[in-house]
Amino acid sequence: MRLSTRAQYAVRAMVDLSLYSQGRPVSLKEISRREEIPLNYLEQLFFRLKKGQIVTSVRGPGGGYVLAREESAIKVGEIVVTVEEQLNPVACLDEGDRSCQREARCLTHTVWQGLGERIKGFLDSITLEDLTRGARARHADEGNNGNGACRTAG
Amino acid sequence: MRLSTRAQYAVRAMVDLSLYSQGRPVSLKEISRREEIPLNYLEQLFFRLKKGQIVTSVRGPGGGYVLAREESAIKVGEIVVTVEEQLNPVACLDEGDRSCQREARCLTHTVWQGLGERIKGFLDSITLEDLTRGARARHADEGNNGNGACRTAG
DNA sequence: TACATACTTGACAATTATAGTAAGGTATGC
DNA sequence: GCATACCTTACTATAATTGTCAAGTATGTA
Questions:
Q1: A126 contact B CB<8A
Q2: What pTM was estimated for this model as a whole?
């Protein structure tokens, strides 16, 4: 029942972007350095995030990525789904899957279905704003180095 | 964010056992046939389930497995954790993991922690009894072949 | 215009986890 | 004493995931 590191990285990177952007483009190089995520790997993630219309890009020198919407309108669930493709706990819940033909009679089906809904619901109840709010406050307070996001894991 | 098939099989097998047992031992051969799960694979699962004190075994001819407790006292979450080992969505929540040292400052940590709690909470809110109740009613009604559990997936 | 920056995209390799197989052993009832 | 059925370990194939490499394209600035 593990979330891919892709998804974990994506959320961390988005939090980082959100904290350091202030409307200006942030380069992946920066995020890569701060979050200790391989640059090439980040590129793949942001390719997806852009397709998912969660970020927009600015090319050329001084370019980078910007949030496509305001923090409060970006849900963690969205980020995860965009890079993860599937959030369903079991394959037979995926759209287009026809292997589970006994759906109506399957006793366990409803459990996994319910579980999937809970997971999605929970992650959709949290926005980027929720995640950065605390860090911003601290940041303003302490004037520290601003490492709001966890670099190593989690 | 996928549950292993091990966990799915285990829950299905437990539902099957629960439905067909009535206090008597049910052999894995039977369950294997009904649920179309490889016998050797089932043996591995029940090895774990026994260690987890969810079932007890009866050796010798006519033997098999029996629920260790009554249906209403066996939670789906227990079954999953027993065969799955980890239910945490991210590694840094595992006990003994020390890689996430910024726990206190990590913005995303609490999200995964909350997610893990929801998952566990949901699966622990469902018992074997909940799953078999409906099937028993139908079974009594229809006198059908009793395929309460989904064979192919889910 | 030239160049540096930084996004864009596809292909690929290494690692790891999972699913499933195989095989042999042990206990027990008939 | 034999058949049944649990017990246990080891192994292999396959797939997914993670991460790397490389070669582009667009664009702002000097």
A1: yes
A2: 0.88
